[in-house]
Amino acid sequence: MRNNDFKVFFNTRDELTKVCLDDVMYVVSDGNYIVLKFKSGRSVTLLASLQNFIQVADYMKDSRFVRIGKSHIVNLAYVSQVNTLCRTVVLVDDDVDGRVELVVSKEAAQILKTSIISSKKAVISDFKTSNGNMEAFCLVK
User: Which residues are within 8 A (CB) of 26 and not within 5 positions of it... i.e. 6 or more apart?
Assistant: First the structure.
């Protein structure tokens, strides 16, 4: 069984909440709370920080979650587009209609783009145009 098959229980002062990390598209900071946004459109609010969530993901050896900027963590499995010029990140799940577009800082978009490109060590195939303006690669799931 892989680590990401586990359901994680978040235990805060007042409640116990079960979360399937596979279904979390992104996490957003909201003051002293974080809001987990699921592919179904459902949200769960926890009394925790983004750093707490990253620590849990790291402990579970789940490298799909990348912190971008001060207020977002995204699940790389749902990233469909990163536009550094427009400062947007588009998240899509093929099983559910709809898409989520996050407006982030230019630096945050660049961090995400770099994270995806640096994960190329799992590349199946790689292609670059002759002038070097475009590159295409496939990642192993």
Answer: 37, 72, 73, 74, 75, 78, 91, 100, 102
Which residues, at least 6 apart from 89, have a Cβ–Cβ distance to it below 8 Å?
68, 72, 74, 79, 81, 82, 83, 101, 102, 104, 108, 109, 112
At 97-114, the pLDDT tens digits run 778 999 999 999 999 998
**Residue 45 near residue 65 (C-beta atoms within 8 A):** no
1: pLDDT strictly greater than 70: no
Location of structure tokens 């974080």: 34
Q: What is the 3-state secondary structure (H, E, C) of 3-72?
A: HHHCEEEEECCCCEEEEEHHHEEEEEEECCEEEEEECCCCEEEECCCHHHHHHHHHHCCCCCEEEECCCE
For 59-93, the pLDDT digits (tens) are 888 788 999 989 999 999 999 999 999 999 999 99
